[in-house]
Specification:
By secondary structure, the chain is mainly beta. The chain contains four helices and 35 strands.
Length: 471
């Protein structure tokens, strides 16, 4: 690594690279870049002298030392730093006037300083599990002490794993070295600098890939919907949006099909495939907008996500709901006849497109205590109507189940209390609307409450009993 000599702007500085040799008749040749030294810099053998050093003199200097037996050379970088701007010795007004008039007064006790500016050479890094990864950013500004540099990810500080900065003529290069990376380290890393004058940040996205054998796509995770591809309903005459969101790497492109025909932007459809979502660099999305839904839009839509290594498909089923009109309405009768002409099975197909909801999914446990469990789940297709939920649970080894009707009914997170300590329970959830009930969720979550006795009951009655000392 190149040697670095630090100096403070406005002060004198010395670079001493005196060589040792035998015989000791040594001659020196100093250069800066490919040029000879400017007159303002004095050389005496292996020593350079700077008077009132300026930031413009922050460069790489090369010295060549020779004796009758040979020649050697080395480089050194002069890092010119300055104190935080105060101007207390000359006063604020003279300083501001000098800036307006276009020159910078130099005083031994102060100098002009700059906030940091960061440049990254790449904004995305791909790696395989087990690889070593080195992230870097180039920083300019003055001063730039070592403690000004930081690396972090999702509020986790990686600064203790950062390599020592390497100073160059174009700025300060800061490194972060990660060894034997895993897919869990995929995410955004921030190069952050605070030099006391200002702050700056730049971001690099690390994508740790793995090969998914099921569809030959190289992904950070298997390309699945971020949410759930499934059934959706929309009222006739309104706008419908189908959102396809996947996690994959490298870059993903999308297209949409219906009845094996590729859809394009036109008066009917608007397809937005802007790519990277706001979450991270391995999340991609595409939105299909149907500008004005009518009965002919009822059916299946397919989103295809692909990159150079493979593709994945996700299906959406759109149910078109009729507007609320009396059945004997002349308009509705005309619309029903119009649909029958276009191939609808019967009049009831249009009269009521609503249906019972689909089963919720993603049932999981958020918290466990001695006498309570907190569950959460994700709603599925609502059947085109408002839906509510029921939770069923039973004790292990007992076939008698308890069913709870939730309040509020559309809750997707719920506390089940008054359970027994150190007891195993099985939980399921189902949805219902005015058209009927779904099946119970395919997941049957098994939970064992904690051991011990709890005097706290999450009801107002028990809370007051506890405060009053009533048992």
């Amino acid at each position: 690594m190149m040697s670095v000599v630090k100096a403070q702007e406005g002060h004198n500085a010395t670079i001493n690279l005196t060589a040792k040799a035998n015989p000791d008749r040594i001659s020196y040749r100093w250069t800066v870049g490919d040029n000879y030294l400017p007159r303002a810099i004095k050389a005496d053998g292996g020593v350079l002298y700077f008077r009132d050093v300026r930031r413009i003199q922050a460069k790489t200097y090369r010295v060549q030392a020779s004796n009758p037996l040979g020649t050697t050379e080395t480089n050194v970088f002069l890092d010119v730093q300055c104190k935080r701007l105060c101007g207390k010795d000359l006063g604020r007004k003279p300083f501001e006037r000098s800036l307006r008039e276009g020159f910078y007064p130099i005083h031994a006790n102060w100098c002009v300083s700059d906030p940091p500016n960061i440049t990254v050479f790449y904004d995305q890094v791909l790696a395989q599990p087990g690889n070593d990864v080195h992230l870097e950013c180039l920083v300019t500004g003055n001063p730039l002490p070592q403690e000004a540099f930081h690396w972090r990810r999702e509020n986790v500080d990686y600064s203790d794993r950062a390599s020592a900065s390497n100073l160059t003529e174009s700025g300060t290069l800061s490194y972060l070295s990660l060894y034997n990376v895993t897919t869990d380290e995929s995410g955004v890393f921030e190069c952050y600098v605070d030099n006391g004058i200002g702050e700056a940040s730049a971001f690099i996205w690390l994508i740790v890939e793995q090969t998914d054998d099921s569809n030959s796509i190289c992904v950070a995770e298997k390309p699945i919907m971020m949410g759930k591809a499934g059934r959706f309903s929309q009222e006739s005459g309104s706008m419908a949006q189908l959102i396809c969101q996947v996690r994959a790497a490298p870059n993903v492109t999308f297209y949409w099909t219906r009845e094996n025909q590729r859809l394009e932007d036109n008066d009917k459809y608007d397809i937005d495939s802007n790519g990277v979502a706001d979450v991270d660099r391995i999340t991609w999305n595409s939105t299909l907008t149907i500008k004005e839904v009518d009965s002919t839009d009822h059916g299946e839509y397919v989103c295809v996500a692909q990159n150079v290594l493979g593709f994945a498909k996700f299906k959406f089923n759109l149910t078109v709901l009729c507007k609320s009109l009396p059945l004997n309405s002349t308009v509705l009768r005309w619309r029903v006849r119009h649909i029958l002409i276009q191939g609808a099975e019967d009049e009831n197909h249009y009269r009521s497109s609503s249906a019972p909801p689909d089963s919720p999914y993603g049932l999981k446990v958020l918290n466990i205590s001695t006498n309570s469990v907190v569950l959460t789940w994700t709603p599925s297709f609502s059947g085109g109507m408002d839906q509510a939920f029921l939770v069923r649970y039973r004790v292990s080894g007992n076939q008698v189940a308890h069913v709870l009707e939730l309040h509020p009914p559309n809750s997707t997170t719920y506390l089940i209390d008054q359970l027994r300590p150190k007891t195993t329970y099985f939980f399921q959830v189902r949805a219902y609307n005015d058209r009927g009930k779904s099946d119970y969720s395919p997941e049957q979550v098994q939970v064992t409450t904690l051991e011990g006795t709890s005097y706290f009951k999450l009801t107002l009655k028990h809370y007051w009993k506890y405060l009053l000392g009533v048992r």
